[in-house]
């Protein structure tokens, strides 16, 4: 590019040390060249040159809003480089913002976001919230708050929420309003993506923590909504499921922050309704939030160790130390409670508030009592199914009872009457559960569906038995001979036969219900869950198998229909014939129903190929071949393909459960535990059908409340109870909000600390450091140029620590105001302390810095750049790390003509060829030293390349007439002697001989001290030159 001597390989641009903005535009400069130099100055962080370009924009015709080949404006370039000074400069000259705010949010530059928001408010006022700009990088539905939520940046989200930005909730996927219909018809993809972007923002943990009063409840509801959307919009199923998992993880992270049982119980017992408070105003452990998590299938939340510990403590309440007992002791306690469960139930009926009555209400005791009662019910079913006869006192069978049970419409036996009482108790328990949970919740549980089916079969069995009994009694009254009909002569669909079939099916389901008890076992529980998943796979497989079965049944029926009709006619004419046409195997394909049965049993290998053969008297070989081909094709598809597919599906389900066995099992166990925590359903069947004194007491209280509702005392008591309930609700809400505030605060602190500890130095940190070094060079060169490149005075007054302390306090207060959290280094290990150390090592005869008004400008520039490069990763870099980094590069040559190179340094430099970034940073620092020395020594080429205006030409000529002494740096005891740019004198007043070159410090000394000493001496010389000029 014209006007630049060399190219910086690191940036791919002109050397930052060249001032490329002339005082007056040249005639041969074109607009594209000026635009390129303007954007180049912004890219390399040259604030002075950029200021000159902006100031001369109207004269030179530069468009300050021009873009580079990548479509970036100057403001976007400054935002990408995170150059705050450059952003402030561009905003002060009124550049167009465009989508700069979105880019600043995308770069997560908090300071830039604040600057842009403040500028927008100052320029547009109240319209700033509704301001949007077209962008090629972001879709129109991406607003600042949505993009900040996508990045999940806590600071930026808080800033935007404080300024009134909000995210409207998207419409329902089935919404048919005008906006949704028009948006879907115009561009369905954009409509769907906008919904995904909105939900992606709403699922941001930082946004939920800052905008929701109940973050856990919001996470639950949002995860359920996202799972529902994943089923509705299958095209974006993976995206919605990922967001749902993100919401679940956030709720688990908040639960992880609880530090005690009190906080945990407050969180899990919180309820927005008054269900957890009785009329007396006392609170009960209802675990409403945990039940809601089970309802919404928040498996990670429920299976978390904190929840499991609280559930276990409530489950084993009443048996202290039970889990620490031996296996023999546990079995002894369980069998004792199981054996005496009828006695415990009777005691509870008589005295429910006694010690034993309160003991049976404990969850674990209640579970043992209920399961013992159910096992007794299964034993009674076994007795009935095995046809156990009643034996009289003499030990002989009662023949009358035996004959009665074999007749149609036989009366029920004693065991069957007990079973009937059990079934009545089970039905009553299901009715109470249906009343408490509601129809939808009741149907949602598959175990409830199994109970409903079993109870329905038992009801149908007893109904048919009762119907058969009354029918037989009526026939006996009419002396009908069918009343005493033998069993082999009963009709096929006799009520007694149908009742026996239904009772057998009910027995199967009742026995399978015992598997539910295995959920509490850590070994059998995962197997029981896997079995449930496999049943769902079997149902899915059955749909495909039924289609295949019906297809081949129709085809085979079309092939064999004639031969089946002929065989049926021949067999009907001679039913006693035993020839081939009436053989059983020739009837396998007689009709559609027979073909379906044949194909079904063929899967298990119970049907041979000869069943597809025709009768020997038919010579239709082709028809027989087609029939055998169809039967073979069906067998191959069903046995080889479908059955193996079913095995693979079941194996996959088992592997999924096995990979998450702990989570799945704990979730299923928690559901079982919670079902026994309520006070209702204490007694098992059939004792729950017996009215207890407590039942009569509740009935009397209900009647009293209805009959005496109009009395003044009753109204007063009701109002008092309402006040107590409201007071308790307010207290509970206050406690919950306090705990939730603590959980969110801990979550945010841990979230901000996490990336700082794990990321280390990234590429962005290196790029930011390069930008800071480049900006520092240009600012320092601008200061030196404005001061005439005067040599420094070694007797300049040393600075005090007062201004540095104010600077440090300002930075800390600014970060606290933005709610930043970062680790602070000790004062002795910071770069500022090093700066103060060099400042205090100067001549003690200097005057105070506070009296020098020009000191602040230079100090602020130097220390701002030093602090910025040490805070690139959010954690201050200690001085030991800074010195170690510089020491490793301390043996590089600065200028071959000025420095003497140690031959031992060549091998050390060869080992550092791979560290290109570190070398580039040190080369920049060496270049800065070299330019300072060459300016003072009168180097003509570099002096002319700094600027081409007439003012610098005069200064360059003055510099060429100046002294040509060589800079010398040497250690002096524990302190570092500042760089002298004047001819040095000895104690006798004679000038020392000229040094042939610059000598390095001792290798054990830190190179950073030399560089910072040079910077401070240069600063002192600049201030001294200004004072002399002004005087």
From TrEMBL:
Primary residence: membrane
Keyword tags: ANK repeat, Ion channel, Ion transport, Membrane, Repeat, Transmembrane, Transmembrane helix, Transport
Positions with biased composition (Low complexity): 843-854
Localization (cell): Membrane
Pfam families, sorted: Ank_2, Ion_trans, TRP_2
GO biological process annotation, one example: regulation of cytosolic calcium ion concentration
GO CC field: cation channel complex; plasma membrane
The Transient receptor ion channel domain, residue ranges: 175-237
Segments of skewed composition (Polar residues): 977-987
Recorded topology in the membrane: Multi-pass membrane protein
Annotated ANK repeat ranges: 70-97
Basic residues bias (residue ranges): 1-12, 800-809
GO molecular function terms listed in the Swiss-Prot or TrEMBL record: inositol 1,4,5 trisphosphate binding; store-operated calcium channel activity
Highest taxon, organism lineage: Eukaryota
Bias type Basic and acidic residues, positions: 898-923, 945-958, 1004-1031
SMART domains: ANK, TRP_2
InterPro entries registered for this protein in UniProt: Ankyrin_rpt (IPR002110), Ankyrin_rpt-contain_sf (IPR036770), Ion_trans_dom (IPR005821), TRP_dom (IPR013555), TRPC_channel (IPR002153)
Stretches the record annotates as Disordered: 1-21, 787-857, 894-923, 935-1031
Residue stretches spanning the membrane: 332-351, 363-384, 412-429, 449-468, 497-518, 538-563, 629-650
NCBIfam families tied to this protein: trp
PANTHER family for this protein: TRANSIENT RECEPTOR POTENTIAL CHANNEL (PTHR10117), TRANSIENT RECEPTOR POTENTIAL-GAMMA PROTEIN (PTHR10117:SF54)
The name this protein goes by in its record: Transient receptor ion channel domain-containing protein
Organism: Pomacea canaliculata
């Amino acid at each position: 590019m014209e006007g630049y001597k060399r190219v910086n390989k690191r940036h791919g641009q002109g050397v930052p040390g060249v001032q490329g903005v002339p005082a007056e535009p040249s005639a041969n400069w074109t607009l594209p060249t000026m635009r390129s130099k303007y954007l180049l100055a912004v890219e390399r962080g040259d604030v002075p040159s950029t200021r000159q370009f902006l100031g001369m924009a109207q004269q030179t015709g530069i468009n300050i809003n021009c873009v580079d080949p990548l479509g970036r404006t100057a403001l976007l370039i400054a935002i990408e480089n995170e150059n705050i000074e450059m952003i402030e400069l561009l905003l002060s000259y009124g550049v167009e913002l465009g989508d700069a705010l979105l880019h600043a949010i995308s770069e997560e530059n908090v300071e830039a976001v604040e600057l842009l928001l403040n500028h927008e408010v100052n320029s547009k006022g109240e319209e700033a919230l509704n301001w949007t700009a077209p962008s090629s990088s972001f879709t129109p539905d991406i607003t600042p708050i949505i993009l900040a939520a996508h990045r999940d940046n806590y600071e930026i989200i808080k800033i935007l929420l404080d300024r009134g930005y909000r995210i409207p909730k998207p419409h329902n996927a089935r919404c048919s309003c005008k906006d949704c219909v028009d948006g879907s018809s115009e561009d369905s993809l954009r409509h769907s993506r906008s919904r995904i972007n909105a939900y992606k923002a709403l699922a941001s943990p930082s946004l939920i923590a800052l905008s929701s009063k109940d973050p856990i409840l919001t996470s639950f509801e949002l995860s359920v909504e996202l799972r529902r959307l994943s089923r509705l919009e299958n095209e974006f199923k993976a995206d919605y499921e990922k967001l749902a998992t993100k919401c679940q993880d956030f709720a688990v992270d908040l639960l992880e922050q609880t530090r005690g049982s009190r906080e945990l119980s407050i969180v899990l017992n919180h309820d927005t309704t008054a269900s957890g408070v009785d009329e007396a105003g006392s609170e009960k452990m209802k675990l409403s939030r945990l039940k809601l998590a089970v309802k919404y299938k928040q498996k990670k939340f429920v299976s978390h160790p904190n929840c499991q510990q609280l559930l276990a403590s409530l489950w084993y309440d009443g048996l202290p130390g039970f889990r620490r007992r031996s296996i023999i002791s546990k079995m002894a306690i369980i069998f004792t409670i199981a054996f005496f469960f009828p006695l415990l139930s009777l005691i509870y009926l008589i005295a429910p508030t006694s010690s034993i009555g309160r003991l049976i209400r404990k969850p674990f005791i209640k579970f043992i009592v209920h399961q013992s009662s159910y096992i007794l019910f299964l034993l009674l079913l076994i007795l009935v199914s095995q046809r156990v006869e009643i034996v009289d006192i003499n030990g002989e069978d009662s023949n009358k009872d035996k004959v009665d049970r074999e007749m149609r419409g036989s009366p029920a036996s004693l065991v069957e009457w007990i079973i009937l009482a059990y079934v009545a108790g089970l039905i009553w328990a299901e009715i109470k559960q249906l009343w408490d949970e509601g129809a939808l919740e009741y149907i949602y549980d598959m175990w409830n569906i199994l109970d409903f089916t079993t109870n329905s079969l038992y009801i149908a069995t007893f109904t048919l038995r009762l119907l058969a009994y009354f029918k037989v009694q009526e026939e006996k009254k009419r002396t009908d001979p069918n009343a005493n009909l033998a069993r082999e002569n009963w009709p096929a669909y006799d009520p007694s036969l149908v009742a026996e079939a239904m009772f057998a099916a009910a027995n199967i389901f009742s026995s399978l219900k015992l598997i539910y008890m295995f959920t509490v076992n850590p070994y059998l529980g995962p197997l029981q869950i896997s079995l449930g998943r496999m049943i769902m796979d079997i149902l899915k497989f059955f749909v495909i198998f039924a289609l295949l079965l019906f297809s081949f049944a129709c085809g085979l029926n079309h092939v064999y229909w004639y031969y089946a009709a002929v065989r049926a006619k021949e067999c009907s004419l001679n039913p006693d014939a035993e020839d081939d046409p009436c053989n059983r195997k020739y009837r396998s394909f007689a009709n559609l129903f027979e073909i379906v049965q044949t194909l079904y049993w063929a899967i298990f290998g119970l049907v041979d190929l000869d069943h597809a053969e025709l009768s020997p008297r038919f010579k239709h070989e082709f028809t027989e071949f087609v029939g055998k081909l169809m039967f073979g094709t069906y067998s191959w598809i069903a046995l080889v393909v479908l059955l193996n597919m079913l095995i693979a599906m079941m194996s996959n389900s088992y592997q999924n459960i096995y990979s998450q066995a702990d989570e799945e099992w704990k979730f299923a166990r928690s559901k079982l535990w919670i079902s026994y925590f309520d006070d209702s359903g204490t007694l098992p069947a059939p004792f729950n059908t017996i009215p207890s004194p407590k039942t009569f007491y509740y009935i009397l209280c209900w009647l009293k409340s209805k009959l005496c509702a109009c009395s003044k005392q009753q109204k007063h008591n009701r109002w008092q109870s309402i006040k107590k309930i409201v007071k308790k609700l307010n207290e509970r809400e206050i406690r919950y909000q306090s705990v939730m505030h603590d959980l969110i605060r801990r979550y945010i602190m841990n979230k901000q600390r996490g990336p700082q500890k794990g990321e280390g130095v990234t590429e962005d940190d290196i790029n930011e450091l390069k930008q800071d070094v480049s900006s520092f060079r240009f600012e320092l060169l601008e200061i030196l140029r404005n001061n005439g490149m005067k040599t420094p005075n070694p007797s300049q007054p040393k600075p005090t620590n007062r201004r540095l302390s104010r600077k440090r306090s300002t930075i800390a207060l600014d970060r606290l105001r933005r709610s930043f959290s970062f680790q602070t280094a000790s004062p002795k290990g910071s770069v500022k302390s090093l700066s103060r150390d060099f400042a205090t090592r100067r001549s003690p005869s200097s005057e105070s810095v506070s009296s020098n008004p020009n000191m602040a400008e230079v100090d602020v520039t130097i220390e701002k750049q030093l602090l910025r490069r040490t805070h690139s990763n959010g954690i201050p870099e200690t001085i030991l790390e800074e010195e170690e980094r510089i020491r490793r590069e301390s043996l590089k040559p600065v200028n071959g003509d000025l420095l003497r190179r140690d031959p031992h340094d060549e091998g050390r430099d060869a080992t550092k060829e791979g560290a290109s970034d570190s070398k580039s940073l040190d080369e920049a620092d060496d270049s800065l030293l070299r330019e300072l020395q060459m300016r003072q020594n009168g180097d003509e080429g570099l002096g002319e390349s700094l600027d081409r205006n007439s003012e610098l030409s005069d200064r360059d000529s003055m510099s060429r007439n100046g002294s040509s002494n060589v800079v010398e740096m040497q250690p002096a005891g524990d302190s570092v002697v500042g760089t002298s740019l004047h001819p040095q004198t000895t104690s006798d007043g004679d000038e020392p001989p000229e040094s042939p070159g610059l000598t390095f410090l001792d290798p054990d000394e830190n190179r950073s001290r030399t560089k910072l000493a040079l910077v401070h001496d240069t600063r002192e010389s600049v201030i001294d030159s200004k004072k002399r000029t002004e005087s």
